[in-house]
């Protein structure tokens, strides 16, 4: 209804409301999230699975330096999608909050509490002038009192709790895939399969082990565990998703 | 009377007066409230009812994480509509004010006092530069000296006291429904029925238990109580408002 | 003389002078005052009368929550017109000044002194950047050393002393009515009659008790007293101004 | 030489130089002074006379509340023209400076010293960003070591010393009148006559006692004295300037 | 080469460079200097002469209040041209620097040192945002270790040392006159004659004693001395420059 | 898809998101990097090689003053490309971080830790207002616990780990060259050859010793070592890359 | 490639990147340098030579007050070109740094260290908002541990080390002259001849002694020495560069 000229007005200034009650800077930050490769979280009865697409633009780039899964605390992992440098700021913030909680109360921070401290921090950047919003979405997974929990933080600073979710590129297709295939009864391995299947579904059906990141937070151990390449490769093979690396290289040329 | 070009001028800057004495940023924040799903408050002789529409966009999203009813203090509940992250800021502010009051005066904060501290906080964001207004309306319900009280805070920072009110989407229709059907003599169950009937009236006559939030603050107990899904389902059944969940799922497809 | 384009220039920025020496933001704030319902103040030999139009947009809204008459100190009342949330800020400021005066000098603040502290506060918001002016006018009534005093504060921060005045909607007609009918010899009841007559004159000749606010500050008691609905109804009946509530409701439909 | 478009550029921002070396915001503030009713100062051998036009827009407005002559110290009076709320700020500043001087040096502040402290304060608002200039001119009259002194402060922050001057509306005509009729030998009564004659000269030859403010600072007493209405009326009668109040009222209708 | 549209861009903002490396705000401040009446400084072997044109717009304005020559310290005088209120700020700054030097080092400040502290202060206002440049040029004259010194400060904050110079209106013609007639061997009286001749050369050959300011800083006394009207009149007479005051008055009419 | 007009909007303000989720100021800062001459980093089993193109525009300019390789700590070297003055700021920041780490923990800072402290610093300049991003990319090479590490920091504040990379002019061609010729088994000399070959590949096949900078951080010594001109010349000769200096001079003319 | 309209966008705001990665405000500051008269530095085996063109616009202006060569420390001299007032700020900054170094470490500051502290200071003004860049280039010459050193600081904050360089007007021609005629074996006198020859080459082959500034920092003495007019005249005569002063004066007329 409103023309392009009017919309431009909201692009320039600080984060203010448009006549229809929207915050364009926040919506543009959401676009920054979509520009990032996909990240997936799946909650199972036995724990939480984090899986990410981390394709690297050059064979000389170390896969490990494309940080998309981070340990926030012993019992909490975070996957991100969007503006990488912004993600690092929020991860650091989350880690400091976890440490402060441990120091102050002598026990690990709750996953929900941690998520909400992060979203409150994000919200400030959408209301108070002098800074732009964070161009990143986080998937926060962990164990609260023996219960697996899975949260999302979006650029507006809203926390959501999910059974399974995707953020970043192809979110629409991935979320559809998760909705169709999610099984409340699945164990951790089932969750891993679902996450990898979903990622493969938007990658012509196969994945390369170095282009995937995988981590779990197990209800038993209450420990965040990031998977090595070999273990990822086994999972891909088990799920019949292992791509042909040479083929991929050729197609790059 | 004023053309679109002129109106644009007020969209860009900080919150300033237009030639006809309006604060456009505040009015746009009201549009942000309308973009949120509806929340209803009903005051009865026996206490206050808070009811909210919390339809979730995905079956994988945890209904419980769509926070629209919050406990502000033992005797005060708050329902919100509009920008979710902004609502969280105001709820946190309200909780801190309640705690400070308890610490300072050794007794619970009054519902009216609490509401006005929140609206004064909101007003600051409409007058002093460097920030945008809050894009949220709150319904504050509680018990003051044995009396049920029901307040609204709007984005301008004005407090209103109501017998029954709706904020958010469909406010017009909902408020009409409440005005036509409000009964000063009703008890808490009557208030719950009115609130659910109103919500159903803009949802083709039926509601799903997971898409509704319900809470009361009872004059007897002076305690905020949020209802579980089962209890909501019973109420919907009693009031002949229970929708068919499968049908809803189908219509989504 | 100046075209619309030029005028726009002054709308956008902070409060600065226009080429003809006007402060547009202050003038627009005056428009915000006119958007509010009317408030009236009448000074009589026996005290000051404050009367306000407080029609509520919904029968479910508590009349009492439409705050237009406020107690600033035991001997000072303030009626407001304009942006409600701004009024609350100024009332709070006035109350703090009254308390500070009591603490510092051990006696109640003078009505004139209080008014001027408020107007100095208002002026700051019209000269120093980073905030907008207050969109509200106040009528400050009280007793100074046994003398009734009646002041106005306007959005520029100018104090005026009046025998009788109106602010807000219909100011022009109301002020004309007051000028024609003001009687220097009137007692408090005469002042109340004048104020109600004036309000009725712009409301088709009658008023509903719940749509009127009334308060006095009596020279005898030196106490601010806000009237209950029953007493207002008696006054309306006495002055043959009592409207028909049902009719009003019908006309709403 | 420069078109209207260029001039607009200087209207919007803070106080900066135009290409021809002018400060438009200061010049616009001078227009704000012209929008105020006239004030006159006359220095005689026996003291200083301050006279102001203080016509009130409504008979219900207390003449006394139209403050145009202020006591700054026992021996200093100030008349103002322009933006009333700004004048109050400068008067308050002047009073504080006078008190500080008394406390620090144990003697009254010099009239010239006081004027220059005020003009330095005014200048700051024309050079440093974040605020607009003061839209007011002051006439500062007083006694320095037995000598009558008469100063002007203008919106640029420049101090001038005068034998007789006018500021505000009709400044041109009034200043011409003063130049033609000023008598260096006149006593205080002669000064009062000159000031009233000048004011009458731009008011169809007559004045109403309630529309004039009059004050003197006498060399003998070194005391600022503001005149009551009766005394003003006598002076008007003596000078054959007394207008017909009823006629004035009629002409208003 | 650049059109008017481009130039406007530099008028609006803070002091920034134009594409050709100029600071327009500083150049416009130089225009403000040209708008002021002329001031002249002449250095002779026996001391420094300061002479200023101080024509007053009204016979009722006290000539003495048109401050163009100021005593900065016992041995330093300053003449100014341009924005009067800005000049006062710089003079005050210079006086404080002189006092600080006396307190700190127990001896009078050097004329060159003083000038450079003033120009450093001026420069700050051309580089750091939030304020405009000073619209004034100063001529600083004084005695350093028995040597007469004569400096200029310009709005960019550059110090220059001169044998003789003019600033303000008619600078071009006056500077030409000084260059043609300057005599390195002249004594103080010779310097006074040169300064008055120069001023008269742009005033139809004659000057009125009340329209000229004159001061010297003598190498012998090392004291700043401002001349009274009588003494100025004598000098004008001696130099055959005395104008006819009545004629001047007539020509005003 | 978006026209030039829209893009301009993002050029002017602070660093904000565009509608497609990009940060133009950061992307323009990347252009500033491309404007700088190329820098290359190569990680080998025996250590890290840093090589830079440092052609100087004049034979009178000291080659050594074109700083493109810097020692950050005994075991860490940094090569830069882009805005030279910005690079100096980041190098200084890195050095201070290294010193602080040594003081606080009594051991050298990790290369990865150091890189991430630098990127977090860079990110702040892309999110918080009042400053522009850094227009520089850094290649950070060093030894972590006996392991050679090679990182990049880009203007968005993202850290990447590489086996070999190029930044600055001709990045595309250089990176292609590195990808085709990188040998994981190479020793330090092999790394030097690769880096020099790459640089020569975009310089018509030969290099002059004074136009190349070369440094290594050896796994054995854990020491940063910058090469003198003679040693560079030997390497160029060995690799048959040594250009003819006279010829280069001629082509300049 | 980009039109004039686009370029304007970068002129107005603070120092931000253009789409092609340039900082226009810094480039415009370089234009300010070109507007200044030329300065030259020559490094010889026996020390450093600084020579400047300091033509004065009026014969009444003291040549000595056109400051283009400054003593920064006993062993360091600085020549400047560009905005004079900015140069003074940087010189003062350099002097303070030299003093601080002496106080802190008990020995003179290194020439390179000093230069880099100045360039870091300059860089801040190009990155952090609220100020403009410095419109000046400095030539810093001095002795470091017995070695002559010659540096340049440019408006971006980049330090360069030179054998010989020119900044300011005619930089291109002067730098060409220096490149063609520089002799690495020259002694101080040779350096002086080169510098004066270069200056004369762009002044029709001759120079006037009062229009040239000359200084050396000798390796022997490690002392900055500024030359008097007589000595400059001798050098000009020796080098057959002495112009005819009367002729110059005539050509001015």
UniProtKB/TrEMBL annotation, chains A, B, C, D, E, F, G:
Chief location bin: cytoplasm
One GO term of the biological process aspect: ubiquitin-dependent protein catabolic process
Molecular-function GO terms, alphabetical: threonine-type endopeptidase activity
Keywords linked to the UniProt accession: Cytoplasm, Proteasome
HAMAP family, per the entry: Proteasome_A_A (MF_00289_A)
Subunit structure comment from the entry: The 20S proteasome core is composed of 14 alpha and 14 beta subunits that assemble into four stacked heptameric rings, resulting in a barrel-shaped structure. The two inner rings, each composed of seven catalytic beta subunits, are sandwiched by two outer rings, each composed of seven alpha subunits. H.volcanii produces at least 2 types of 20S proteasomes: an alpha1-beta proteasome and a proteasome containing all three subunits (alpha1, alpha2, and beta) that appears to be asymmetrical with homo-oligomeric alpha1 and alpha2 rings positioned on separate ends.
Role this protein plays: Component of the proteasome core, a large protease complex with broad specificity involved in protein degradation.
Family affiliation: Belongs to the peptidase T1A family.
Protein name, as recorded: Proteasome subunit alpha
Gene name of the encoded protein: psmA
